[in-house]
């Protein structure tokens, strides 16, 4: 049930169909449970992993564009309740980070407003409706996935997707360094996360090496995810400051968020520079050599 290609898979296409079926099955199981917040989180996570899966075989998979859009839309339709919770959590993490340095009581209206927004989203009943629609769409996707076909097999089926995704991460890193704004760092995070998924899928090529790359990509994903949440937090406050308390207190909160973002960037760069040290073609050649050894010895 692992999210990785296995030596016993009869083909890459067989592996992709197996993994897709497993991920969709887990998403459906979470919807059937009683934890609605957990279901929203899990469905979004499974959709991202599914998009990472098909992105690995993208050049060999004619259905990529439609399926990628389908999973993106499923995740998007249930994001509202999750987004409100993230703003609460971001505020709490900021207060913890700056404990003893700010007057938390003066910033209380910010937390209360985010709490009200979250309750409103929960009480409007939209979560259940969206999860029901997600179930319908996931069931249809599961049926389609059982018939997915790839035009290539073996290394040829994954080489193009691996290199293209890694190359986009490298380009996104260059863009974020030239223009370190929230949009560029968010794009970088997405590309890093896809490379993380690919290292998970190809873990068996060399488990020790892949574990190191996975750990680095996971750490970066967390750092850049917090960076994005802080950016949304600051933009939300700046977009409607009157809704969150006095203008002075809102400016303080925005300043705290921006300062925290800068520290996160300082943490991210050394890890990024190591993980993205190779050119895409060089990384592809290295992984191809490992693929050959893996197919020979298991």
TrEMBL record:
One Pfam family matching this protein: CHAD
Recorded superkingdom: Bacteria
Q: Which regions form coiled coils?
A: none
Q: What range(s) does the CHAD domain occupy?
A: 9-288
**What PROSITE patterns does its record include?**
CHAD
What is the recorded name of this protein? CHAD domain-containing protein
Q: What is the protein's species of origin?
A: Croceicoccus marinus
């Amino acid at each position: 049930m692992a999210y990785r290609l296995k030596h016993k898979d009869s083909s890459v296409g067989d592996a992709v169909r197996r993994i897709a079926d497993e991920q969709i099955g887990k998403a459906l199981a979470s919807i059937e449970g009683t934890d609605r917040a957990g279901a929203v989180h899990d469905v979004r996570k499974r959709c991202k992993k599914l998009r990472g899966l098909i992105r690995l075989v993208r050049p060999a998979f004619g259905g990529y564009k439609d399926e990628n859009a389908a999973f993106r839309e499923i995740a998007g339709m249930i994001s509202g309740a999750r987004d409100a919770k993230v703003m609460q959590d971001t505020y709490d993490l900021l207060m913890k980070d700056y404990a003893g340095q700010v007057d938390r009581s003066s910033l209380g209206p910010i937390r209360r407003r985010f709490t009200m927004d979250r309750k409103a989203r929960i009480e409007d009943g939209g979560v259940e409706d969206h999860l029901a629609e997600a179930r319908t769409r996931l069931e249809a996707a599961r049926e389609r996935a059982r018939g997915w076909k790839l035009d290539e097999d073996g290394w040829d089926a994954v080489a193009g997707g691996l290199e293209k995704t890694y190359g986009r991460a490298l380009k996104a890193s260059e863009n974020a360094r030239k223009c370190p704004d929230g949009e560029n760092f968010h794009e970088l995070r997405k590309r890093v996360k896809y490379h993380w998924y690919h290292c998970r899928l190809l873990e068996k090529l060399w488990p020790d090496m892949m574990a190191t790359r996975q750990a680095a990509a996971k750490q970066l994903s967390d750092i850049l995810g917090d960076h994005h949440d802080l950016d949304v937090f600051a933009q939300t406050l700046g977009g409607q400051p009157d809704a969150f308390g006095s203008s002075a207190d809102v400016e303080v909160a925005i300043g705290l968020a921006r300062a925290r973002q800068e520290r996160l960037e300082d943490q991210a760069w050394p890890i990024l520079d190591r993980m993205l040290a190779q050119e895409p073609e060089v990384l592809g050649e290295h992984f191809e050599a490992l693929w050959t050894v893996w197919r020979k010895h298991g």
